[in-house]
């Protein structure tokens, strides 16, 4: 009886301890979520404050309609389009490399590779995403550019082609891994039904499985594009620092992230118009990546509802 009474008295204590532990864990999770949200609000607040100061000195028409970007020169011009052009050009080259290779790798791993091969190849592929981007930058400048110059003599030392190709290799694991996941979760019944109707392996893959997973594949490509747009060190090292409105991948060009690095490493005084251009460019970059992420999220949600 005394033992039973002891157990009965211990049960409320255990409940209290369990309740306190759950509350602590819940509070810790809430704090972690709050830190990320508050950090985002802080970044947006700083951007808005500095951008407001920038546009008190520079008109919207000059910033969005001018085609020259020379805020560090004596005769200043603040047209953002040369930097946007450089960012989009390099990102386009990167996607031209990452999309076909990544999708082919995803199809192979999902439909053709042996399970043991898949378990080995996929982690090795994802190692590419863990290499520091500064290593990719010097790889593009010191190895890829000389190799391309031996093939294309007119290629300049700083150009958009080499960093774009290397950036494509960097984001290839994102395209391959996410697309492979989208292909892998397509219901088996779709494949079996196609085989029952006499379709070949390739017909099943490209006429049934691929269209069924197009939502997830599209989301992975948009996320990879967002990653390419926001990349810094590769373009800062290998693309050059010449903001020019052209689409020639053989010439030097400057991306938005490269300009931010250029000014941040200099002796630009705080509060000057040159200093505030960092935040103006950063705000444009923020909006671009935000739009891409929102589009990717919307596509992913539609894809999950389709197969959820």
Description of the structure:
- The chain has 308 residues and is mostly helical.
- It has helices spanning 2-55, 60-65, 81-112, 115-127, 133-151, 161-184, 188-196, 201-212, 214-229, 233-238, 256-264, 273-307.
- The protein is globular, with a radius of gyration of 26 Å.
- The model has no long low-confidence stretch (mean pLDDT 86).
In short:
The protein has 308 residues and is mainly α. It folds into two domains: 55 residues; 227 residues, MetI-like fold (Orthogonal Bundle), CATH 1.10.3720.
Order of helices and strands: HHHHHHHHHHHH
* Helical content band: over 70%
Q: What kind of sheet is the major sheet?
A: none
Shape: globular
Category by helix and strand content? mainly alpha
Number of contiguous helices: 12
CATH architecture of the largest domain: Orthogonal Bundle
Write down the overall mean pLDDT: 86
Domain unit count: 2
Q: What is the number of beta strands?
A: 0
State which percent range the strand residues make up.
Answer: under 5%
| CATH fold annotation of the largest domain | MetI-like fold
CATH class of the largest domain: Mainly Alpha
Main features:
single chain, 308 residues, mainly alpha, MetI-like fold, 2 domains, 12 helices
Secondary structure elements and pairings:
Elements: H1 2-55, H2 60-65, H3 81-112, H4 115-127, H5 133-151, H6 161-184, H7 188-196, H8 201-212, H9 214-229, H10 233-238, H11 256-264, H12 273-307
Helix pairs in contact: 1-12, 3-6, 3-9, 4-6, 5-6, 6-9, 7-8, 9-12, 11-12
């Amino acid at each position: 009886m005394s033992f039973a009474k002891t157990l009965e008295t211990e049960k409320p204590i255990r409940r209290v301890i369990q309740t306190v532990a759950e509350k602590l864990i819940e509070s810790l999770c809430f704090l972690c979520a709050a830190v990320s949200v508050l950090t985002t609000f802080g970044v947006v607040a700083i951007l808005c404050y500095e951008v407001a100061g920038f546009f008190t000195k520079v008109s919207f028409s000059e910033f969005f309609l001018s085609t020259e970007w020379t805020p560090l020169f004596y005769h200043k011009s603040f047209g953002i389009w040369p930097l946007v052009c450089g960012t989009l050009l390099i990102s386009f080259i990167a996607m031209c490399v990452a999309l076909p290779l990544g999708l082919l790798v995803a199809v192979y791993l999902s439909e053709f590779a042996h399970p043991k091969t898949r378990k080995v190849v996929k982690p090795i592929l994802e190692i590419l995403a863990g290499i520091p981007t500064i290593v990719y930058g010097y790889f593009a400048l010191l190895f890829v550019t000389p190799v391309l110059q031996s093939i294309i003599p007119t290629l300049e030392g700083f150009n958009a082609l080499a960093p774009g190709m290397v950036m494509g290799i960097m984001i290839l694991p994102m395209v391959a891994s996410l697309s492979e996941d989208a292909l892998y979760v397509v219901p088996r019944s779709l494949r079996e039904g196609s085989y029952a109707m006499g379709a070949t392996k390739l017909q099943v893959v490209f006429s049934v499985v691929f269209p069924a997973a197009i939502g997830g594949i599209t989301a992975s490509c948009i996320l990879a594009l967002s990653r390419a747009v926001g990349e810094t060190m590769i373009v800062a090292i290998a693309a050059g620092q010449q903001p020019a409105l052209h689409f020639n991948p053989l010439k030097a060009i400057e991306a938005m992230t490269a300009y931010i690095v250029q000014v941040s490493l200099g002796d630009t005084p705080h509060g000057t118009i040159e200093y505030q251009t960092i935040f103006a460019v950063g705000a444009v970059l923020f909006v671009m990546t935000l739009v891409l992420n929102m589009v990717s999220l919307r596509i992913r949600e539609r894809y999950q509802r389709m197969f959820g």
